[in-house]
Design brief:
Blueprint lengths: L3 H8 L1 H13 L2 H6 L8 H8 L3 H13 L3 E3 L6 E3 L1 H6 L9 H15 L3 H5 L11 H4 L3 H26 L7 E6 L5 H9 L3 E7 L1 H4 L2 H8 L5 E5 L13 E7 L10 H11 E12 L9 H11 L10 H9 L8 E7 L3 E7 L1
Parallel strand pairs: 3-4, 3-6, 4-5, 6-7
Antiparallel strand pairs: 1-2, 7-9, 8-9
Helix pairs in contact: 2-5, 2-7, 4-5, 7-10, 10-11
Length: 343
């Protein structure tokens, strides 16, 4: 970075985030998209949202300035920017607005306020809840689960395409830390011969059956309510796939060798451990969003780390896998990779 403006943009970036969250809170993008022509004036939008027109004008101005909305100078009509129309309108195929609206805005955003305390050594697992304590709260578990499900369907479809499983072979998959089962459900939809078991906290998996029913995969995706870190939790054996999506960055790095070793043991010969997570490049120069996610996770998992492929390969080879049987693929551009480790 070489300019004052660059530092200012970074320092004030949180304001743009809150403008986005505010727009999602009152469904601005969906309301603008609805109806004939899909464009509305601020006055029309104020009537629909029941928000004071002056306040709405301030919010809309912010959303225009950051590129999320557009306004026709002649008519004063608002329309969504192409990305907003595709990703922030309820019902669109690529919509992940609920993920931003609930998990990022209401949970992750506030947790980032603990960065300084964690760095000072004042924040720890007793002060800032880890996942096991956090998800013991049924309301928090439900909020997180709903938003995470919305954010995971897209990456799950990409992973299903990447694996290109043989449609003629039955496949058993264990989805460790799989939440409501977005990855398992999506994989089962693409591969009718796949049966999956989702292992996660009881208050999380309790949310899953409605998604299974909606996804039309009843009887092929089941749930095991338990903490994957607990050594008395038995993992089903003879698995063709063991998936850990967003798990490795959400627990202490000290816990990973045990988790990967248990995955190795429950895999059938030739089975694959799939580790999908935020990863930075080996030189740690980026991607920035992946690095920032690691920082966010540190706020309630101080033992976590920013994962690189080289570091991860070193850990899994201590657990039975060999380096020449570990391959990496980008899953979400500039954000996540998946490591495919074959037994």
């Amino acid at each position: 970075m070489t300019s004052f403006e660059g530092i200012s943009d970074l320092g004030f970036a949180f304001m743009g985030s809150k403008a986005l969250f505010g727009g999602l809170h009152i469904n601005v993008f969906t309301h603008i998209s609805e109806g004939q022509g899909g464009a509305k004036t601020i006055a029309e939008l104020a009537a629909i949202t029941d928000v004071n027109e002056r306040k709405l004008t301030t919010l809309v101005t912010s959303l225009i300035s950051v590129g999320l909305l557009e306004m026709d100078a002649a008519s004063g009509k608002l329309s969504n920017a192409p990305a907003s129309e595709k990703f922030l309108v309820k019902g669109s195929k690529a919509d992940f607005g609920d993920y931003l609206k609930y998990q990022i805005s209401k949970q992750m955003y506030t947790m980032m306020g603990n960065v300084e305390s964690v760095l000072d050594g004042k924040g720890n697992k007793t002060e800032f809840e880890d996942y096991s304590k956090w998800f013991a709260n049924e309301e928090e578990a439900a909020l997180y689960s709903h938003s995470q499900h919305a954010g995971s369907v897209g990456p799950a479809k990409s992973l299903a395409r990447l694996l290109a499983l043989d449609q003629s072979q039955a496949v058993k998959m264990l989805d460790v830390g799989g939440g409501t089962g977005a990855f398992s459900i999506t994989m089962a939809q693409k591969y009718p011969n796949l049966k999956a078991t989702v292992l996660d906290f009881p208050n999380v998996v309790a949310q899953g059956m409605k998604y299974v029913k909606e996804g039309g995969v009843e009887g092929r995706v089941s749930y095991l309510g338990s903490d994957a870190n607990e050594t008395n939790t038995a993992w089903p054996e003879g698995q063709d796939l063991v998936l850990m999506s967003y798990l490795s960055s959400s627990v202490s790095a000290d816990d990973l060798p045990d988790l990967y070793s248990r995955a190795y043991k429950c895999l059938a010969p030739g089975g694959r451990l799939l580790i999908h997570d935020f990863m930075v490049e080996n030189d740690r120069k980026g991607p920035a969003c992946a690095a920032l996610w690691a920082l966010q996770h540190m706020c309630f998992t101080p033992g976590g780390t920013a994962i690189t492929p080289a570091w991860l390969t070193g850990v899994v080879t201590q657990c039975g896998f060999t380096a020449d049987k570990v391959e990496y693929h980008q899953l979400i551009p500039e954000l996540t990779k998946v490591a495919i480790c074959t037994k």
